[in-house]
Amino acid sequence: MEVAVLTLAAIAWIGGDGATASAPQQAPQQAPELGRVRWSRSLAEARATASRAVLPVALLFQSVPGSASDRQFAEDALSHPLLVEVLETEFVPAVAVKNDPADAPLLERYGEEPTGGPVLRFLDAHGSDLVPRRADVVDAHGLARRLVEVIESLGRPVPGYLSLVVDETAPGPVERAWIEVPDLVQGEVRIASIPGVVSTRAAVLAGRDTVEVAFRPAALTFRDLLEQAARADAAAFVFASDEAQLDVARRVLRGRARKVDPDTDARVHEQQKPLLKRSHLRYLPLTPMQTMRINADLATNRDPARWLSPRQVRLALLLARGERLNPLLLADLEPPRDLDGIPAYERELLRRLRETAEGAAEH
């Protein structure tokens, strides 16, 4: 990656001050029903921006204040950091407030009722629907799939980071497995490449190097997980958490399994995503699946940028430059382990980068 110049303008762009959809007249960002997306309050301005940028418009019909379901959709789908970025970079987002009389003409034009849950419609620069209206998109997974549908309808490539969101937010229970691997670094990488694996973490169980694997049985059964791990030479032994897992593991691995209580016997390994930790990418605010996939790419000499959003790529360049200017800039920072911690963490990153840029500008 080419190192970007650390400038205040670049940092402001990452922080959202230069988002595509930022229009002079914006929705009140404090309203919980709007999530973290920077919505324009003027469809006319949004359409003008869309025409110039050759982008579709994402028009949200939402009540402010709204019901608990309105707020849940905003907190889940409209606050997911990667979905927010898709809406702000692949679309021009605008909002029509259902219970605001000023927006009544828009509701009438599009046949929307002033009551009911949120509806997100996708329009061309002329204001016509690109895909049929749907009112059943109620969570992050549904929104991610809907965004993929719209992008594909335009004949555009689906960003890799959006594909990850579809996989990472898929519904259904998540189960865990503990697999001893011959080599911790390569074993985790090979398991991470199995479709249906949600996340991996190095652990120590019964004194052995083990990979804790989270997977969705609806997409990947425990048997399939073990069979694929065994074929990849990444399953020396299995620690089963119940009798059902034990029975399957003994059949697949010819007895190389025993039952344990992972909650009692397992501990987190000090070596977590070692390839990522040796890269400046380690400071990026990443989702768990991004962390897993990027670490695997670094181990196999593939370009991890395919899993990063445009803002994350730009932030990575700024981080590399910032560390060169101040090697201790990020030494005490620990990236969050869940999505809820990303906004505050990102704000702290940008604050430090801004101070570093200001210091460099003075000299």
Please write out the topology.
Blueprint: H1 8-14, H2 43-53, E1 57-62, H3 68-76, H4 81-89, E2 92-97, H5 104-110, E3 119-123, H6 140-153, H7 160-168, E4 175-180, H8 184-192, E5 197-205, E6 208-215, H9 222-231, E7 237-240, H10 243-252, E8 257-259, H11 262-265, E9 266-268, H12 274-277, H13 288-299, H14 310-325, H15 342-362
Parallel strand pairs: 1-2, 7-8
Antiparallel strand pairs: 1-3, 4-6, 4-7, 5-6, 5-9
Helix pairs in contact: 1-14, 1-15, 6-7, 8-13, 9-10, 14-15
Features:
15 helices, 6-stranded mixed β-sheet, about 375 residues, 3-stranded mixed β-sheet, alpha+beta, Glutaredoxin
CATH class (first level) name of the domain at 20-168: Alpha Beta
Q: What's the helical proportion of residues? A: 40-55%
* Morphology: globular
The CATH architecture name of the domain at 20-168 reads 3-Layer(aba) Sandwich
> Counting H and I runs of at least 4 residues, what is the number of helices?
15
Radius of gyration: 23 Å
The tally of beta strands, per DSSP, is 9
Lateral arrangement of strands in the main beta sheet: 8-7-4-6-5-9
Structural class: alpha+beta
Q: What is the beta-strand fraction?
A: 5-15%
